[in-house]
Design brief:
CATH class of one domain: Alpha Beta
Number of strands: 11
CATH superfamily of one domain: Amidase signature (AS) domain
Strand order of the largest sheet: 1-3-2-4-6-5-10-11-9-7-8
Mean pLDDT: 97
Structural class: alpha/beta
Largest sheet: 11 strands, mixed
Strand content: 5-15%
Helix content: 40-55%
Length: about 450
């Protein structure tokens, strides 16, 4: 993992480093890391780094983080660059004329984008494979390459490999939390209304949300504030009651290492905060509706990409992505409207059931799967993709702000992750709970 934002800010203020050295180092590491970035921005990044160095020399930095390099998933518009969405169908897309508002907000504080990170095509996969730009992998010593998690695979690996301290992703069904879990990072998926979504290439507008991936909760909170044009907050841990729904852990899909680790997490937390066992009926009704009617995100993604899917560019689409988009054809507009109504109803019921408490559960039911067998077997890939998103998709459907925390490691060096979720709009309460939990639980090796 890279140094934290606070460490880098302290080094900048003390003159132990400068923005040019930081950006040059990040670009060098990015070039040496296969498939992590779809594009780098060396000229603009270095120009901004030199400007930041002059501001520090003049005693006028834009913020204490002025000159720190970061990365953005290639769904965010950055002026002068093409937004690829991880797809060759967008090779001829016009470069963005202006930054997405969240990008612009961070630039006003001096954060420097060095490039745009890789992702599953159209952000439509929980595993992170991309046949067009390559599949980035985390650097776990002595472990065969694993799926990085998707769709924000490049953002997660950019942090895990120490290229940048923070990278920003999007999350529609787990696309921040799954890659965080599979790479041993912290991932925060916001409520939908927390950020300005303009200039962000969509997957499913009803469900899309944003969030940072980082090495610590403090860095996630700093970037969360920056994306909203605010100064970095002082983290204030504040434990709240935790709720466990044991029914979510039933069945063989929750693998033994994940279940054993989660029990250990609960035992550790229970020494410090009340843990209540309670069935969250809104979650189960939402899950049943999706099982019966289909995934609203798939319907919206198909509608968005229908012209490409049915036109001459179809041959350019990853066949695994095209197959999933084809499958969404069974969801009619009337069924989609029914799902929207169910979603609104269950979100309201969840407020009564969960209240001010925080739901705790594993982030993913299984460990990061080996890459090679899944890339060789499309049917198995599709099966594992569905299982991978099982515990993140429902939280997205209910617009629950969620954090994936690295909370341990298997004996052979694979990360284990725990998910915390709150009701829609309770992001600040969730973040204070997550930073408290991070202090209690052993996360990174």
């Amino acid at each position: 993992m890279p140094e934290t934002l606070d460490d880098l800010a302290a080094d900048l203020a003390a003159g132990r480093t400068d923005s040019v050295r930081l950006v040059e180092g990040a670009l060098e590491r990015a070039r040496a890391s296969e498939a992590v970035f779809i594009m780098l921005m060396p000229e603009s990044a270095l120009a901004e780094a030199h400007a930041a160095r002059r501001r520090w020399a003049d005693g006028r930095p834009l913020s204490r983080h002025d000159g720190i390099p970061i990365a953005w998933k290639d769904l965010f518009d950055i002026a002068g660059t093409r937004t690829s969405a991880g797809s060759r169908t967008r090779d001829a897309a016009e470069p963005a004329k202006v930054d997405a508002p969240v990008v612009a907000a961070t630039r006003r504080l001096g954060f420097i984008p060095i490039g745009k990170t890789n992702l599953s095509e159209f952000a439509f996969s929980g595993l992170g494979a991309n046949p067009h730009f390559g599949t980035p992998t985390a650097g776990f010593p002595g472990v065969e390459p694993r799926m990085p998690g998707g769709s924000s695979c490049g953002s997660a690996v950019a942090v895990q490999r120490g290229i940048v301290p923070v990278a920003i992703g999007t999350d529609t069904a787990g696309s921040v939390r799954v890659p965080a879990a599979f790479t041993g990072c912290v991932g925060y998926k916001s409520s939908q209304a927390r950020y300005d979504m303009a200039g962000v290439f969509p997957l499913a507008r009803s469900l899309d949300s944003l969030g940072p991936l980082a090495g610590s909760m403090a860095d996630c909170m700093t970037m969360d504030a920056a994306m909203r044009g605010l100064a970095a907050p002082t983290p204030r841990p504040a434990p709240a009651e935790l709720i466990v729904d044991d029914a979510l852990l039933d069945g063989p899909a929750v693998t033994a290492p994940v279940r054993t680790h989660f029990d250990e997490v609960l035992a550790r937390l229970s020494r410090h905060v009340p843990i209540r066992r309670q069935r969250i009926d809104a979650w189960h009704r939402a899950r049943d509706a999706i099982a019966a009617l289909g995934w609203l995100g798939a319907y919206e993604a198909r509608q968005l990409h229908l012209d490409v899917l049915t036109g001459p560019q179809r041959a350019l689409i990853d066949t695994r992505v095209a197959s999933r988009l084809d499958g969404a054809a069974r969801i009619s507009a009337e069924v989609a409207a029914e799902l929207v109504a169910i979603r609104a109803r269950e979100m309201q019921r969840l407020r009564t059931e969960l209240g001010d408490a925080v739901l705790i559960l594993p982030t993913v039911k299984h460990l990061p799967p080996p890459l090679a067998p899944l890339e060789a077997d499309p049917a198995r890939f599709a099966e594992v993709n569905v299982a991978t998103l099982a515990l993140t998709m429902i939280a997205s459907f209910l617009d629950m702000p969620s954090v994936a925390l690295p909370t341990g490691w298997t004996p052979d060096g694979l990360p284990l992750s725990t998910q915390l979720c709150a009701v829609s709009g309770a992001d600040d309460r969730l973040l204070t709970q997550a930073i408290w939990a991070e202090q209690i639980l052993p996360g990174r090796s």
